[in-house]
Amino acid sequence: MKKTLLITLEYPPMVGGVAHYYQNIVEQLPQSDIFVLDNNKHELLSPHAWVWPKWLPGVINSYRAIKKYNFEHILVGQVLPIGTIALIMKLLTPIQYTVMTHAMDITTPTGPEGNVLKKWLMKRILRHAFRVTTVSSYTRNKLEELGVPSKKIVTVYPCPHLDGTHISPSKEEMENLDTSYSLHNKRVVLSVGRLVQRKGFDRTLEAFAQVAPDHKNTNYAIVGEGPYKDDLLHIAKTLGIENRVQFTGSIDNKELAQWYLRCELFLMPSRELDNNDVEGFGTVFLEANSFGKPVIGGKSGGISDAVVDGETGYLVDPTDVTMIATAMNRLLNEESTAIQLGHQGFKRVQDIFQWKQQAKKIKDILS
Q: Per CATH, which fold does 4-156 belong to?
């Protein structure tokens, strides 16, 4: 493998899906050949208002690193603004670069919040890239719309942050969860995600209100924090279901595994917003599948790559509350169907969505 430098704004100790994605890819590559230059100490973007452009430190530090360690390839964590650094490096040195994309990094600059300059620069960065990776069929299509040749694009799927085969909560821990949230003898429907409008938790609350009268022993748990929380609390109260909905806030992975194990089904009907904010993939669906749970996802963005309709769960119109409620009702009423979908989802995760398999695609690019 070529000696490679990954430059990225998102990397641990920073938390988040993208940081986790890069960490897992790096861990699967030969450690003597992969090095990371992140922004945890402002080595890529300056925090000072008087420095312009903000990515000037990234140009200087990347150039120094390439000359000092003889890097042969650059992995670019964010097309803007970090891709600008790689483009300049290619002009200054013979080094090639690969841009790694996700969703909003390519949809937002081309949407209402973008501008002509950003779109022009993004196209230029992508055009000069050796390869461009992405996370779903949806984002691949977006790249092709931007003029990136299909043969240059490589899909590298995200994999579960939590895997049901690697973590097993104890009986005592499960008892404590039930006690803490008054769940004894209750069935549980689960959502996990940042509490923002895109995730569709407002629609899941409305759908649960339709389902709740026929499933009096079923509660709905929403795991996560975010700016939309007060709105969701208000919706639950308005619908009269606040006593059957648990908002857990932020929790650690140990408790999250308990919730995945405890629930009977998982749902997150994410939708695309007017500003092109959209779900690029949806790793949480794979996490739920890895615990053998069936899932319900919205037909938007890259979710159709994470959820196979009728095989690992159901895809629904994320704006259709009745359709969401119907899918929820079916999984609650038909136990054998729920078990089968969960089992098929588990097998798909084990067969396809493993970091070793996905990182091999990066290794092949760098070879």
A: Rossmann fold (3.40.50)
Model pLDDT for residues 127-160, shown as the tens digit of each residue: 999 999 999 999 999 999 999 999 999 999 999 9
| 171-352 belongs to CATH 3.50.50.60 | no
Ordered by start, the domain boundaries in the chain are 4-156, 171-352
81-112 core/surface letters (b: 16 or more CB in 10 A; e: else): bbbbbbbebbeeeebbbbbbbbbbbbbbbbbe
> Which distant-in-sequence residues (6+ apart) come within 8 Å of 127 by Cβ?
147, 148
Q: What's the mean pLDDT in 10-33?
A: 94
Q: What is the mean pLDDT of residues 298-303?
A: 95
25 pLDDT tier (thresholds 50, 70, 90): very high
